[in-house]
Design brief:
The protein has about 100 residues and is of the alpha+beta class. It has one domain (about 5-100): YaeB-like fold. The chain starts with a strand and ends with a helix. The protein contains three helices and four strands; from the N terminus they run E-H-H-E-E-E-H. It is globular.
Length: about 100
């Protein structure tokens, strides 16, 4: 399996989402969110080519892909390289995703 590289912006996204679920609901829901993220990342590690390329730029090599979480409205955005996978963002699906994916 490929090594995962979690970018700082993705880490920030995850921290904000976890805090939201913890503050608005409870620790159990926040932990379920954390587990759903772990499952999505594990899927990406095992099957990197299965993510959607909906938001990629046609010239991007490798293409930007995303995989959605089960039971939570978030998506993990990543680039799959030959030796590793860069997870660049973890965004709520109602967000202005193209805007958040700007460099």
């Amino acid at each position: 399996m490929k090594r995962i590289v979690l970018f700082a912006r993705a880490t920030d996204d995850l921290e904000r989402a976890f805090e939201h679920y913890f503050d608005v609901t409870n620790l159990q829901i926040a932990e379920q969110f954390r587990d759903a993220v772990a499952q999505a990342i594990d899927h990406v590690k095992r099957h990197p080519a299965t993510g959607s390329m909906r938001y990629t730029v046609s010239s991007a090599k490798p293409p930007l892909r995303f995989w959605t979480l089960n039971q939570f409205p978030y998506a993990v955005f990543y680039f799959a390289h030959s030796e590793h996978i860069d997870i660049v963002r973890v965004l709520h699906q109602s967000a202005d995703i193209p805007q958040h994916l700007q460099p």
